[in-house]
């Protein structure tokens, strides 16, 4: 006989009442107009959400752009005094040039419960699995990226990000972006969350994600044939291995993404502790 008291499957708890209030922080235009994005200036940190708990971040959606040379649809006609410059890029009149590396120049940080050191610190693109600023599309249970088709597999190409990781916080959640670039960029976002009345259980595990890079990553045998006899070298002490995770305590290791570019390696990992 099966236990019917617990949720079954991904949507099993939809038929249960949950005493929580759902809300959203977003980049919507609070003046009532339609400029639903934020401009983040060079060197600026912007707080996307500062939420009083207890509660849970349930979904994050973000899309953004960083143009070295803006297209006509992005130029304020008042700046140049020519109204005809307000041409939407969909009409095919565009001379835009994007920063090919800007997904690495925006840092995403998340703080739980008034901590001074962020539990999440990673380049924006790498956090969502878009590695080395190279646009692409994929779907997974906790994360997805949807790249703009004409810019697919281009560096700095337009893409929309989703995260469905459940991120608890007891008293406060603060989500910040830092623009480490020397030019501004545009940020659109939704941050969906639930607020609950009761304190979080004592065994609650908090969400963590960190990014690391070895530049360069010293390897061995670059001239060897992959999967050849020469590469079957014993390594019992871990010398010169690239360490993906070293931690103590209790929690769940969720996994990591690994990217390599021009023999320079980088990774970021997610875990709850």
From TrEMBL:
Region feature Disordered, mapped onto this chain: 1-35
Name of this protein: DUF2961 domain-containing protein
Pfam families linked to this entry: DUF2961
Gene source species: Naasia aerilata
